[in-house]
Specification:
By secondary structure, this protein is mainly beta. The chain has strands at about 1-10, 10-20, 25-30, 35-40, 45, 50, 55-60, 60, 70-75, 85-95, 95-100, 110, 115, 120.
Length: about 120
């Protein structure tokens, strides 16, 4: 899994997490992660609510050499609450957890909470 960029619309910002198939056999994806938790630079953890404002086409299987799936981690851009910079995103799956640490220069702020989508195809 890798952070693959950002897209914004209607006061919401989608942080795109790509899940790329690397095996030689098809891989089944769960509908959504068990949990998505973001950690702020101040050290506080916030668990994402399920659901996203961005439309996704459900993808349940990754084919070898095929297109990646996307998970959207969504924040608001029009929030009046103080912004809290995010240091990392932890995605919990039945097979284990994946921690994505933001590199210097990557911008990801938490204002009015965070939401996460099902796995799917980014539109």
């Amino acid at each position: 899994m890798t952070l693959a960029g950002q897209e914004g619309a209607g006061g919401h910002l989608a942080h795109l997490v790509r899940v790329t198939p690397t095996g030689e056999t098809p891989c089944r994806l769960p509908r959504s992660p068990d949990a998505v938790t973001v950690t702020t630079t101040a050290g506080g953890d916030v668990r994402a609510e399920a659901g996203s404002s961005f439309p996704m086409v459900r993808l349940d299987t990754l084919a070898p050499g095929g297109a990646p799936a996307t998970l959207v981690v969504e924040t608001d851009t029009s929030c009046r609450h103080p912004r809290r910079p995010i240091r990392s995103i932890e995605i919990s799956l039945a097979d284990g957890d994946v921690a994505l640490h933001l590199r210097r220069g990557q911008r990801f702020d938490l204002g009015c909470g965070v939401r996460s989508s099902d796995f799917g195809v980014w539109q």
